[in-house]
Amino acid sequence: MERIPFSIGSRAGYHKNYNMAATVLHIADLMLWCFMAVSVLYVLFFALSSLLPAKKPTAHPPITPSPRSHEAVSFLVLFPAYSEDRVIVDSVETILRQDYPKELYHVAVISDNMLEETNRQLATMPITLLTPSFDNSSKAKSLQYAIKNLEPLQTVVVLDADNHVPVDFLSRLSSLCQQGHRAIQCHRTAKNSDNDIAVLDGVSEEINNSLFRRGHNRIGLSSALIGSGMCFSYQWFAEHVDLLDSAVEDRELEAMLMKEGVHVHYAEDIYVMDEKVSSGDNFQRQRLRWMTGQVQTLVRMLPHVPHAICHGNVDYLDKTLQQALIPRSLLLVFIPILAIITTIVSLFTHIPLFIPLKWWGLQAVLCLSLYLAMPAKLRTGAVLRKVLQVPFLVWRMVKNVGQISTRNKEFIHTSHGE
Fold it and tell me: How far is residue 354's CA from residue 62's CA, in Å, rounded to a whole number?
């Protein structure tokens, strides 16, 4: 067969197509880098903000005094508990040991799908035991049920079934409530470090506390909620709890607070001990809930952005931006992958050196930001070595992306006490 010569014209066409393809790839690479850089710079900004000194307490209108006391606040403490037989009794006992006047707080457990033996044990305690039966269980439904079936008090506290609190928990919350705070998020921290996964989950929680709670409060923005260790004015909570209709009630409450301009105070010195997940399966379910909630919340918040802009609602705009950012877990996966790929490509092609370097630089900024957001007590060699467990969990996180749905309202349960 006669070989067709490669003409100058065809060579020119080849180079033209190659240059065009290279230009398109460079533009796509730059756009992707910019998209991820926004998320990384957001993390860096609030990591630095978290290092600022605490502001002086802001003056708020005082909450109306309790009819039973002119000095203390009355609390309704709610424990929504779905299949939490292993941990609920111990958690209730910690709240019953408070140094707070017994007549000024009432504890209620919303027992959903728990064993009769557990319910009998709870029934012997000085609490109210509610045993609803839901077709499709959710934490939001349990909270709604409680508000409809319990006598109102001045303030609502929401705790998870695995939460333990110190004896002065309510006393210190009472002091903040009397200063006029209508929404408070306490400092939730790990109570266990069973294995590498539990340690990583605890470290992740503390980084979140630095970025989305302390860092925000330091510059006058609202703290993020976290699902438990939350305290609300009863009147506000009762008016809004019926509006909850998803499996991510904390993000819904957060969006409603921001929309109405209610500031969320972060009580970083009031601790709530929380059990961290110890298995890969629970870790996956937890992250799936968070990422699903992030997408769902973004879809719900976007229509109200123009109104927030017109009224200068910075908290709402910040919260909307936060939902649009790439989760840190995915940044930790995709940025190094892209850095490695572009580095390898640069070795065999003529792409400019700055293309892989900018990815490595972004990875360095992300790691620095997370290091700054990590409490000093956790910056130890033992803890940092546990980061080697991250590759084991990466594939689970990536799988979660395909399971995210804006319409999924199914309750995603994370078991405790295993």
Answer: 56
